[in-house]
Design brief:
It contains one helix and eight strands; from the N terminus they run αββββββββ. Strand 5 and strand 6 form a beta hairpin.
Length: 173
């Protein structure tokens, strides 16, 4: 399956790139509520939790909400690997790739004519992108993230979003 191979290759590349930094001390677990702008179908609000695996590799889980087609309350959940690049001043850029699931509304048609309603459905998704983390204090920071999302399968929708959030340290791993 081509999609699974792409996600697996991205995960292996990120893991190998971060392997040399495994001996360094990881940073704190962070929680980041965010708001976003993007293409139609992109989630405008959400929260991400980032767990450090090494000093250069994080595992991120993301739960987001959007008002969906046919007035459904669409949720999405993703797991991504973030590879932290070398710092530039105080900023830490990163690249990200992952997979997840997303709700969407599928039109329901009557015998003839336009759609008569919407039925909630789930789609597998993959994402790729990057961003930058900037510390404000020792335990609070700003984070900007740009991601491309692609639904896998017959639905095949694509979204792009840019999110801005405030990160809070939730404790050391």
């Amino acid at each position: 399956m081509q999609v699974s191979t792409s996600v697996l290759c991205a995960a292996v590349a990120l893991t190998l790139g971060a392997g040399t930094a495994a001996a360094q001390e990881p940073h704190a677990v962070q929680v980041t509520p965010y708001v976003a702008v993007g293409t139609p179908g992109a989630a405008p609000v959400g929260v991400a939790a980032t767990l450090p695996l090494t000093s250069r590799l994080d595992l991120e889980t993301d739960l987001a909400y959007r008002r969906g087609e046919g007035r459904i309350h669409a949720l999405s959940a993703n797991a991504s690997l973030l590879w932290l690049l070398p710092r530039i001043g105080q900023a830490t850029p990163y690249v990200a790739a992952g997979a997840g699931v997303s709700q969407y509304g599928s039109p329901v048609f009557g015998s003839d004519g336009p759609p008569i309603g919407t039925q909630p459905r789930l789609a597998m998704t993959m994402n790729a992108g990057g961003g930058v983390k900037m510390p404000v204090t020792g335990s609070i920071g700003l984070r900007t993230d740009a991601r491309w999302f692609k639904s896998v399968g017959s639905q095949g929708a694509e979204q792009f979003r840019v999110a801005q959030g405030i990160s809070f340290d939730a404790g050391r791993r």
